[in-house]
Amino acid sequence: MKTDRDYMELALQLAASAKGNTNPNPCVGAVLVKDGVIVGTGLHRKAGEPHAEVHAFNMAGDHAKGATLYVTLEPCSHFGKTPPCAKLVKESGVSRVVVATMDPNPSVAGRGINLLKEAGIEVEVGLLEQEARKLNERFIHNMLTNKPFVISKFAMTMDGKIATHNGHSKWITSEESRLQVHKLRHEIDAILVGVGTVLADNPLLTTRLPHREGKNPIRIILDSDLKTPLHANAVDTAEAQTIVVCGKNADAKKVKQLSDKGVQILSVTKTEEGLNLIEMLDELYKFGITDLLVEGGAEINASFLRAGLINKVLVYIAPKLLGGRHSKTPFAGMDINSIDDALQLEFDSIEQVGPDLCITAYPTGETK
Fold first, then answer.
1. Coil, strand or helix: which one is 16?
2. Neighbours of 290 (CB within 10 A)
3. pLDDT mean over 114-131
4. DSSP-based three-state secondary structure for 300
5. Which residues are catalytic?
6. Positive or negative: CA dihedral 246, 248, 252, 258
7. What is the pLDDT of residue 367?
């Protein structure tokens, strides 16, 4: 006999199958059950397309009357690109609705649930809430901050080194880990590196998946003084869009040269510590970028750390010891005097990927 938990787990699986395709919207799954039989399922596949509840009700037809709806996020109560789902649920004839988590948007949270309760529908909230919130951590962060969700990702040896003293780093981790990172690139809006990485490695910064075409994230290069070569792989915008972030007084001639190649230039204020990252994130969010994978080197990582802008950390650890007094570490920047000043993290998961370990952690108190 299946339980409420079983049906909500199915709804979460449906929602997760569209991860990366729904931005800026959340991932949502819905399951309709009547007399122990699943009569409808649905998921939100892409922004602008029908929501999960719509697909589930279309599949169920008249069987929706008297059924229970399991949905991973509170049905929306406002008009966007599509009509409000709470109204659809209210008029469907369902007798019960089980919601994993409320809408994180402070201006609408609870309205959809109240609408259903006022219609006499039994509503339960909170089943597998943590799982639902983690699935939509990017969306929740967007709603609460109006900024992109920042993921700091790096690979290192067991002794905490990301490269040799001369910068050689290919490959620290295994092919299995690199494939997982490409899957992550497929899911996010943008990937960020510093100009140092462009000069040293000339990366493509695209998504390469076996047996299927991946979605290429927007490439963002932090380059205060526009040192990015015009022949760099990341400047070729045929495959993916590129944004170069520079200071407001950057060379006008180089700005034009990059612009002529299809590169978008974003000028932000330059401070003593480098480019103003908060200003940059605000502008990127206006461009429609809702999450950002930081794959920069030690200096870029340190810039985000100092600014308190890291929302999630992904560390791939290879079973290797590099040693060396001058080998590179994941975070450079200014030294601090006390352990008390360290960014406090909470471990979320540890996964073996091929021979490597992948550790996921969040800053203490970060919404999950």
1. helix
2. 21
3. 95
4. helix
5. 53
6. positive
7. 53
